[in-house]
Design brief:
This protein has 204 residues and is an alpha+beta fold. It is built from 4 helices and 11 strands. The protein has an 8-stranded antiparallel β-barrel. The longest helix is centred in the C-terminal third of the chain and has 16 residues.
């Protein structure tokens, strides 16, 4: 959960990951997103939701995976989605997946912010024991800032899971040659009702 001082400045990241069998018909996922993706296009408190997929054998992916990623402006909006019925549809279709939550460290609009986001890169890395936490946070913020400046970057964010001491970098790109390391996903749909309200830069 976010520890920012006021509801207006909350930014919580949430990721849902459903790994699917190697022979799973990913057309089912595509059809589901086409059918229901628009339902969050006006969701109160949601900065953005990227409907992400990886497909085994495409663009180097070893797995089939459906992995939506959220940036929330308010905890109230996130809780309304999780407990108020929005998340139930995903659970009904794929079984209840694990939900990871991270505290936002930084958010930046990219140099291609006005372009459609067609691909995403997600990278997780541990914060090793003995690392100065202020230094780890500074590096995460600088990496998000640097990614946002790269050609083709739509946006970039950094966050941390303090229960695992793990940093996460997430970025959206206008093509499939992103200048970022990590797992590459295709964006099937982007709901961004309050993207403009996401606070920019370092989150403390």
């Amino acid at each position: 959960m976010s520890h920012c001082p006021s509801p207006a400045s909350h930014r919580t990241c949430k990721g849902v990951q459903s790994s699917l069998p190697a022979d799973y018909d990913m057309a089912v996922v595509h059809a589901r997103v086409s059918r229901v993706g628009h339902l969050l296009d006006e969701w109160s408190g949601l900065g953005l939701k990227a409907y992400l997929v990886r497909e085994r054998g495409l663009r180097g992916s070893p797995v089939n995976q459906y992995a939506p990623f959220y940036l929330w402006n308010t905890v109230e909006g996130m809780n309304a989605f999780l407990w108020g019925g929005g998340f139930q549809g995903l659970s009904d279709d794929f079984g209840r997946p694990a939900v990871r939550q991270w505290t936002g460290l930084a958010y930046e609009e990219g140099v291609a912010a006005g372009s459609p986001a067609l691909f995403a890169v997600r990278r997780r890395r541990p914060v090793p024991d003995g690392t100065a936490l202020a230094e780890a946070a500074r590096e995460a913020v600088e990496e998000a800032r640097g990614l946002a400046r790269e050609e083709g970057a739509v946006l970039a964010a950094a966050a941390v899971d303090t229960s695992r001491w793990e940093c996460l970098h997430f970025s959206l790109w206008e093509d499939d040659t992103p200048k970022a390391d990590g797992d590459l996903f295709r964006v099937l749909h982007l709901s961004a009702p309050e993207r403009a309200a996401l606070p920019r830069g370092r989150q403390w």
